[in-house]
Amino acid sequence: MTVSALRMESDRAAALDILAARFGSRFSRGAEIRRQHANTVNWMANQPPDAVIFVTSTEEVAEIVRVAVAHHVPLIPFGTGTGLEGHVNAPFGGISVDLSQMNRIVAVRPEDLDCTVEAGVTRRQLNEHLRDQGLFFPIDPGADASLGGMAATRASGTNAVRYGTMRDNVVNLTAVMADGSVIRTASRARKSSAGYDLTRLLVGSEGTLGIITEVTLRLAGIPEAMSAGVCAFPSVDDACNATILTIQSGIPIARIELLDTLMIRATNAFAGLGLPETPHLFVEFHGSAASVEEQAALFGEIAASFGGGGYQSTTRPEERTKLWQARHDAYFAARGLRPGAQVIATDACVPISRLAECVHETIADIAETGLIAPIVGHVGDGNFHVQVMIDTDNAEEIRAAEGFLARLSKRAIGMEGTCTGEHGVGQGKRRYLELEHGPALAPMRAIKAALDPLGILNPGKILPD
Amino acid sequence: MTVSALRMESDRAAALDILAARFGSRFSRGAEIRRQHANTVNWMANQPPDAVIFVTSTEEVAEIVRVAVAHHVPLIPFGTGTGLEGHVNAPFGGISVDLSQMNRIVAVRPEDLDCTVEAGVTRRQLNEHLRDQGLFFPIDPGADASLGGMAATRASGTNAVRYGTMRDNVVNLTAVMADGSVIRTASRARKSSAGYDLTRLLVGSEGTLGIITEVTLRLAGIPEAMSAGVCAFPSVDDACNATILTIQSGIPIARIELLDTLMIRATNAFAGLGLPETPHLFVEFHGSAASVEEQAALFGEIAASFGGGGYQSTTRPEERTKLWQARHDAYFAARGLRPGAQVIATDACVPISRLAECVHETIADIAETGLIAPIVGHVGDGNFHVQVMIDTDNAEEIRAAEGFLARLSKRAIGMEGTCTGEHGVGQGKRRYLELEHGPALAPMRAIKAALDPLGILNPGKILPD
Fold it and tell me: Which DSSP letter does residue A358 get?
């Protein structure tokens, strides 16, 4: 954040008055609304904005940006507030731009397998809308996040191993830039070599380069057949190695999720699955009926060669749903391991050849630190999550957790990986970017300064001070 | 290009003297070498640099950049010189940085399905190296281009419909930035949400934001089975509509190429294929033996429903090779339509729902303009190429061709497409960027100014004046 953004409070007050008059009941300074528009999902501080505006159009966002520029007021885009790294916090105050009322599905084009939605449309809303047309949007980060927020954080999730992440599935974006201009980042063509890839630059920029107001997304056809299964492994190493071989074998697996022993225990308790208490892979295959059967059989052979047991696949929707509901509920299941504790959900991602080693070392680290922290992972991408359950009233535990989180990020980076595969940087991971990117931080800073010279867009996020 | 880059000739001469002394026999001012390092592939002017340096390491490139910065000398990265839009021309003089001697394959990691190569490694060199390991790099733009050049132009080609373009297949890049710093754009993790996507920003930046010296690429396993076939259609519309339905049906087709009637005539003459003189689709399927058979059968049904005839698929390698050799030789075959003529190879890309309409209108335009211009296309992506054969001594023909090219770009943009799906902007398409991007040109310019304030990196490319 530049010094200029810290102008006199009186100036900020003037901006708020202008916007209050302009937006009427859609402008709020209420304490509870402000609190809800800062981080509420984990142990990180709740840093509320000065005000919240519920916008209904791209043009309104542009209006707000112009006022914010004139008065040097920070703007923090808000979708559903489910970001895990303090993305929506307002450490310098400012205005939360709530896009949840921009929830129109602008166009669905089955013939092009794409759609255009306003930024506040959530992925469930979109998928409910699409179902009748035999289409779906495959990116599933767990939470029912807004698609604008998912683009802004470069979200992915369980299906990414087959369908890619938001990086791969955004065709173009409409965004309001820090000068108040409205851009569309690209055409609707599937590929283009016409100039700099502003789409990919904004995807993952967490509201620090522009405010995304509309998203055009690739869609997929609902597969003719789906098959799912669970498989128990003697160890995390075996489960990881079975994953590696599955990917190397070119099986187009749609989901392959690791749950470590502790997470299986939690899930058994929460969802009554009755699985043996060892590491498991949850898998899913998409394709034609014949292809799904072939994939499942090949995976079964690979799993067996690593001691995988009890593997059965099913195409019955109710069994698949129960299984994936249990996986989706892992967050809540984990909370059951320590009722009343606060959850820190963190993630890391490494080249798949280092996955077994990284997960193995992480579990040893957890044991040594004495934390309660189950692991789930989108292991087909080398991506895994640790849910650290802590008592936030216990300073020693917080210190222990912080030490663990730092070691995890450094371990992943040291294995040619990244400190975050899908959660984003926000406030929580800023401190690791220097280690991960080194000299590449300089062009990132230069781009930020060029596109947001006043530093009004989501200050205090991504780039370290 | 900023005015500052047009400093006194004496200053540029000083820089050349410094670099001549430093690089000895790897520095050349020879007229023929300079000519070869500017555009030689089509009708566009040959605008040679002042000198050529054959570099052997990233550090040498950084040294050159530092001298170029100090003396405001333009630098033009050079791979194989196969770019089609004047990418390697030196309209303001300067130094061609020839990366062809940086041709080491640094690492192949079968366990991660990736590899790291120096920028001068060509795709054939890489694929020959990989073959024994059961792996391949799927992006195939036709020419045996360097992988650094392919990254710089966001190349794609026949396989992109299944495997994606360079945008999707570059894991990270090493690049020398305009301040002489060396960055690596990302880790080797398959996905990351840690900061701005510099990889995708440099992919397609055509040497205007940094000089790519090393590339880490995703690899694919050589499929267990491949099957290919040709299918004749009554009209281009039928061929395009069969393509659209194939994509919508979710068939994971590996290649689907349109050749219009004129191109079939040329290919018959050149390669002796003996195909009926109507539009054709050339297709290829990759997967397991069973999956390939299933895909081919499904495609056959779709093709038949659009009047497709004579469709036969084959898994025999020699037949597949003959077919795809004919497709690859389309450029040379087209030349046979008008011996002695110069070829303008251009491309455009539209949402697939607009493909039939766009190709149809383009063929009508060609007929009306009186040009000889066959069409081939990677139609699964909505991308097609027109090869305009002209007599460059005939001013009227040049004017007619220019008019056609402008209408083609505008037509594609008007159909929510792009003026170039894979060739890049270079010098040739700069004039259409304003129409295609509108207000989004401003952030592109801001990024260029931020990362290359002196404008020394490949000036006169991509961004219009």
Answer: H
Enter the tokens of residue A269: 């308790």
B154 to chain A, any CB pair closer than 8 A? The answer is: yes
pLDDT in tens, B180-226: 999 999 999 999 999 999 999 999 999 999 999 999 999 999 999 99
CATH number at residue A263: 3.40.462.10
Planar angle of CA B379, B383, B385, nearest 5 degrees: 100
Same domain for B205 and B283: no
Q: How many other CB atoms sit within 10 Å of the CB of residue A9?
A: 10
Q: Is position A25 within any domain?
A: no
Q: Does residue B121 register a pLDDT over 60?
A: yes
Residue B456 CA neighbour count, 13 Å, CB half? 29
Does residue A460 fall inside a structural domain?
no
Same domain, B209 and B252: no
Residues B416, B436: Cα–Cα separation, whole Å: 9
Angle at B112 between CA B106 and CA B114, to 5 degrees: 40
Q: What is the pLDDT of residue B166?
A: 98
A112: nearest CB among B179, B352, B448: B352
Structural domain count of chain A: 2
**Residue A46 domain flag:** no
pLDDT band at A10 (very low <50, low <70, confident <90, very high): low
The number of residues in chain B equals 465
- The closest alpha carbon to A193, from B464, B415, B430, B330, belongs to B430
pLDDT tens digits for range A30-69: 999 999 999 999 889 999 999 999 999 999 999 999 999 9
Question: Given A202, A221, A240, which residue is the final one in a domain?
Answer: A221
d(CA A380, CA B112) in angstroms, rounded, equals: 11
Residue A135 structural domain: 113-221
Three-state secondary-structure class, residue B411:
helix
What mean pLDDT do residues A22-37 have? 98
Checking if the pLDDT of B1 tops 50, the result is no
Are A204 and A284 part of one and the same domain? no
What are the tens digits of pLDDT across the range B279-316?
999 999 999 999 999 999 999 999 999 999 878 788 88
Contact A447 B451 (CB under 8 A): yes
- Greatest Cα-to-Cα distance within chain B, rounded to the nearest angstrom: 69
Report H helices in A154-248.
160-163, 166-169, 198-202, 236-248
Q: Which two tokens stand for residue B141?
A: 């733009």
Q: Which of A172, A232, A178, A183 is nearest to A207 (CA)?
A: A178
Residue B332 shares a structural domain with residue B355: yes
CATH number for the domain including A166?
A: 3.30.465.10
Calculate how close chain A gets to B32, using CA atoms only, in Å.
30
**A residues 244-273 lying closer than 8 A (beta carbon) to B:** 244, 247-250, 252
pLDDT value at residue A43: 86
User: Could you tell me how far CA A237 lies from the centroid of its own chain?
Assistant: 26
Report if residue A27 sits inside a domain: no
What are the tokens at B341?
């003529």
Q: Looking at CA atoms only, how far is residue A189 from chain B in angstroms?
A: 5
- Calculate how close chain B gets to A241, using CA atoms only, in Å: 10
Q: Yes or no: say if B113 and B220 are a contact pair by the CB < 8 Å rule.
A: yes
B411 shares a domain with B350: yes
Contact A120, A146 (CB under 8 A): yes
**Considering B221, B253, B270, which residue would you say is the last residue of a domain?**
B221
Asked if residue B217 and residue B227 are part of one domain, the reply reads no
Same domain, yes or no: B212 and B227: no
pLDDT at A247 over 60: yes
| CA B259/CA B279 separation, integer angstroms | 6
Same domain, A319 and A408: yes
- Scanning A89-148 for CB atoms below 8 A from B yields 109-114
The sheet with strand B383-390 has its strands ordered as B309-314, B225-232, B280-287, B255-259, B375-378, B383-390, B342-349
